[in-house]
Design a protein that fits this description.
single chain; 108 residues; mainly alpha; Cytochrome Bc1 Complex, Chain D, domain 2; 60% helix; binds heme C
Length: 108
């Protein structure tokens, strides 16, 4: 009985890990497909800041997610340098922007 329980727990943990890995992989694909990765590297800045640096800057800031979603939609500059980000809405769906921003904030 105990053995079976252990196996079940192990299996659920494995499935969960696989699901988390899948979610982040698909967010990365979404970022690729949405053109974000033309200007942002995960580890390196391209035209825009690295996603790792964005995540570090807003770590612990509970309101960052909503603000960044709004900024990605509308575009804008002045935070990282002179180069502004062009608007990504409506060509990228709101849901996709939300998924990508949530994923960016986990990259620190
Ligand atoms: C044409 C290049 C370009 C594209 C495409 C682009 N970005 Fe950006 N992004 C930038 C630049 C430049 C900045 C820095 C703006 C600033 O200094 O305020 C930036 C900033 C950001 C920030 C941080 C904003 C802040 O105020 O700290 C996030 C988050 C972000 N981009 C996400 C995205 C996502 C998600 C996409 C795809 C839907 C995307 N970007 C597409 C150039 C781009």
């Amino acid at each position: 009985m105990y053995k079976l329980f252990k196996k079940t727990v192990l299996l659920s943990a494995l499935i969960l890990t696989a699901q988390v890995a899948n979610a982040s992989e698909s967010a990365e694909k979404l970022a690729q497909k949405s053109g974000c990765l033309m200007c942002h590297g995960i580890q390196n800045a391209i035209l825009g800041p690295a996603y790792k640096d964005i995540a570090t800057k807003y770590k612990g800031d509970a309101s960052a997610e909503a603000r960044l979603i709004a900024k990605v939609k509308a575009g804008g500059g002045g935070v990282w340098g002179k180069m502004p980000m062009p608007p990504n809405s409506p060509q990228v769906k709101d849901d996709d922007i939300k998924t990508i921003v949530k994923w960016i904030l986990t990259q620190a």
